[in-house]
């Protein structure tokens, strides 16, 4: 029975269950980030995070199978981002043009996925050998996802190395830009200045790739 004008809510309401899961996941992530910043990533245990979040250790690992995923909680968006941009590019737009546009838009938004993370978080990542290795793995996974997307978009066969070569160049450009942004964040540069510099570097970087990739993977009108 519901109150006047209100909906009937069931204990089994899937919408409420999903909302509760999202809230629990966000709470665990928030507590983990706080502890990582206070103690360092390597010094913080899953048990510490579970206690702070008031959940069981198994609950933490159910939501975050790897401890690194608690720190790099944008990892799924990071890995899929370049491939998704290529898959969603406009008619007449090349893969290079789409990725340049997407990067510059992300700079305008100060998107944490491309490295606008704040100096404390950047120091925490840079100070953990485990996270440095994990970040390298994510860069590699992102390049592999991009190569698969380019192969699908161009109809390349399994023996065609063109998508992998293009992905290596485009993924490498993003890797360099990520490192440049992190260097500025770690140095404590003003965010507005950093964004202006990264926009210039982004344009310069993608312009350098234009002779090789400007006409590659152009979506048909």
TrEMBL record:
InterPro entries: Homeodomain-like_sf, HTH-type_TetR-like_transc_reg, HTH_TetR
Segments for region (Disordered): 1-29
Organism: Streptomyces pactum
Domain HTH tetR-type as annotated: residue spans: 22-82
Protein name: TetR/AcrR family transcriptional regulator
Domain of life: Bacteria
Database matches in PROSITE patterns: HTH_TETR_2
DNA-binding region: 45-64
Keywords per UniProt: DNA-binding, Transcription, Transcription regulation
Matching Pfam families: TetR_N (PF00440)
